[in-house]
Amino acid sequence: MTRSRPTSNPARRNETGSRITTTGARIIADMLDGYGVTHVFLVPAILRRTLAELELHHPHIARVVTHGEKAAAYMADGYARVSGRPGIAAAQVVGALNLAAGLREPFLAGSPVIALTGGRSPATKFRRVYQEIDDLPAFDPVTKLNATIDDAGRLPDMLRQAFRVATTGAPGPVHLQIQGNEGQLDLHETDAEPLVEPVFGRVPPIRPVPDDQTVRHILRLLAGAERPVIVAGGGVRASGAGAELVALAEALRIPVATSANGKDTIPGTHRLSLGVVGSYSRESANQAVARADLVCFIGTGTGGMTTHFWAVPPEGTPAIQIDIEPSRLGLNYPLKAFLSADAKAALTRMLALTHSREEQERAHDEQERTPDERERAARPREEQARAGDGQARSRDEQTRAGDGQTRSARREAWLAEVEGLRADWRARYREVLTSDAVPIRPERIASELTAGLPDNAVLVADTGHAGMWMAQFHDVTGPGQGYLRSAGHLGWAFSAGVGAQLAAPERPVVVFTGDAGLYYHLGEIETAVRRRANLITVVNNNRGGNQSKRGFDRAYGGQGTPQSRELWTYEDVDFARIAGEMGALGIRVDKPRDLAPALDRALSAGRPVVIDVHTDIEVVAPLPVSS
Q: For the segment 290-303, what is each residue's pLDDT rounded down to a tens digit?
């Protein structure tokens, strides 16, 4: 396909001199194929001719029809986060606002979703045409680019720009409004050609590299700190830099906390892993980060959820920040140093210079010795003893050695303190993690997911209590496991899980949500069955949204009335039965001992599964700590 062709070029002509034209639909279809797209998520009717062209010329691109536009956006989001490729969602003009609402999540999470919607026609503007309003402004706050296409000749360059913007810098959603309530502009003929730059079909397409001077400065700061901590965010995940993060942490002996979005960048079972920090967090992570005298933020915007509203670490804590998006640098904490760079490129260079610095220091020590000292150092130890080597090293050398020993002792003390926090947390919650109580405690579900998920599984967690339970009590156990979390929109997880499973059919995808979350897009169980998205959904079914209990208790002066429970409780619903009616496998679990067998059965089912776990409505997640 053509990589670049200005729209002002002369029209293409055949041997007889006639113009060579094609439809906008064929251009869109060919470009989606050129960028490696495998699925389009939509509520019809939108871009009808384009959908036909996909079937005729690119039948491997699946057209996934959903029951709602928000679900389509969430599926595209889950697809994008697992595959690293932009997810495509589409809706006609009357559903555009629903699609815009769905883009809040990938915008906040930094996920590359490209939304295509119908738009108003010049012939009918301001005439009260059926279903039509000006939707365009609604996309401004939830996209990196919000643009219109009113000429079929502009489809190639605008689609190319959409992929560029969605994948570069901090990834995020893009919206293109295509003229016609169903995007009928795709029916128009044009002599334009598809423009495809495959490098922009995956995140990250460009990896800005750090400068060595700043990297060395950062390494010196980290070496000199008594209680350093790394906080790794979703940028590390998007960059595919988990292995480099772990290697650097091991080389520098620095504990690592993560944002919820970066949870799978280091296994939770690693000796240097603190867990998720912030509001939906593990206590030991917050305690350690609050104690740090230097925090190195990598691939995180230092937002309110990651820092528990800037209390962990406390505002004013010295910090280092590394991020691909320059506007995030120094946003909430004073910086001793910063890098605007790709996380993988930065971590790789830090690791390389760490190793080379050790070699340089050894060489420097050798250079500082006198000729006699170098000669004695080269002799065998026995010969040195016979020679009565009693001379002391130089004062400078002793000072360097003393400083190194002091730094090493302080670092060992810090690591011992951190391990103590980790051990205290494990001891404090061991009973609930292994509880046999009926109704089941959610902590037990988290423990079973830690133990039972395969090495290549992807766990997709909803927000609210689901996010709190998973952040606090579940651990990623290996580098091959993935973890996706909602950035704040209850009900996201199931639809995102469908998209994730379609993006990676070879990987087990397990969704953890509550009954409150599943209700949002319950109808998409049928979509999963129809599209053979064989995900497993574990429902924390306590017949309510009991995360709200504390808030309503406060509203009632400390304790809610019996009637106040109507504000956050539901009827007892059998989701296993509902799933079965839709063609999925439904499994009801009432006893903790049945959790592991249910998960094993689901993993081998070969179809979508809903595990309906009936839990204790009175159990609420621990609140975050800030010290």
A: 999 999 999 999 99
283 backbone dihedrals φ, ψ, rounded to 5°: -55, -45
Three-class secondary structure of residue 176 per DSSP: strand
Question: pLDDT tens for residues 74-85?
Answer: 999 999 999 999
Kindly tell me if the per-residue pLDDT of 139 is higher than 70: yes
In the sheet that holds 335-340, the strands lie side by side as 273-276, 256-258, 228-232, 294-298, 319-323, 335-340
Contact, 266 vs 258, CB < 8 A? Answer: yes
Q: Rounded to an integer, what distance in angstroms lies between the CA atom of residue 74 and that of residue 160? A: 23
CA distance 185 to 118: 9
Name the strand (E) or helix (H) holding 194: none
CA separation for the pair 289, 280 (Å, rounded): 14
Q: Which among 464, 492, 462, 460 has a CA at the least distance from the CA of 74?
A: 492
Q: How many CB atoms lie within 10 A of CB 142?
A: 23
Which one-letter amino acid corresponds to residue 495? S
Alpha-carbon gap, residue 202 to 601, rounded angstroms: 35
Pairing of strands 174-179, 113-119: parallel
Cα dihedral: 220, 223, 224, 230 (round 10): 100
DSSP 8-class letter at 208: P
pLDDT at 382: 45
Structure tokens at 404: 């190194």
Residue 215, CB half-sphere, CA atoms under 13 Å: how many?
21
